[in-house]
Design a protein that fits this description.
The chain has 4 helices and 10 strands. By secondary structure, it is an alpha/beta fold.
């Protein structure tokens, strides 16, 4: 199973200047719960946005840079190669960024999307979800509160 996991605004904004444009603690907890113990596939810029390796996950980084080899990671040159090295995991995750999500839209089995209710200025966007190819199978709304400046909805899509 290959799942794309992302948090995107209603205008599909993902982030700006290699960072998220919101802070949603419950979404971070969900991301950690779902991805812990699994392979996480990402582009180099997404990896660079982390202060350190995410614990209890195997980092697979897609890059064209030949000399990019951070300790404790697997570095590959294509999404196809990333999927191949992640075959040991029955549930691998594509975690970004925008270009990797566009590629992943054609090969993923599931999308775990946190839809942040609002529109944001961004430089990276999640691709449109074609409802003829994807079926919404689960949704759970989360109202804004003292820890969450924005309301959001967890959406699970499966390939038709």
């Amino acid at each position: 199973m290959l799942t794309m996991i992302a948090a995107a605004a209603e205008n599909n904004a993902l982030g700006k200047d290699n960072d998220l444009v919101w802070h949603l603690p419950d979404d971070f907890k969900r991301f950690k719960r779902l991805t812990s113990g699994h392979y996480i596939i990402m582009g180099r810029k997404t990896f660079d946005s982390f202060p350190k390796l995410l614990p209890d996950r195997t980092h697979v980084i897609i890059t064209r840079q030949k000399d990019f080899k951070p300790e404790g990671t697997i570095v590959v040159n294509s999404l196809e190669e990333a999927i191949r090295v992640s075959k040991l995991d029955e549930q691998a995750y594509i975690i970004g960024g925008g270009e990797i999500y566009k590629l992943g839209m054609h090969v993923a089995d599931r999308i775990e999307l946190t839809r942040v209710h609002g529109a944001f200025d961004a430089d990276t966007y999640f691709p449109e979800i074609d409802e003829e190819k994807w079926e919404l199978v689960k949704e759970q709304f989360h109202e804004k509160d003292e820890k969450h400046k924005y309301s959001f909805t967890y959406l699970t899509y499966e390939r038709r």
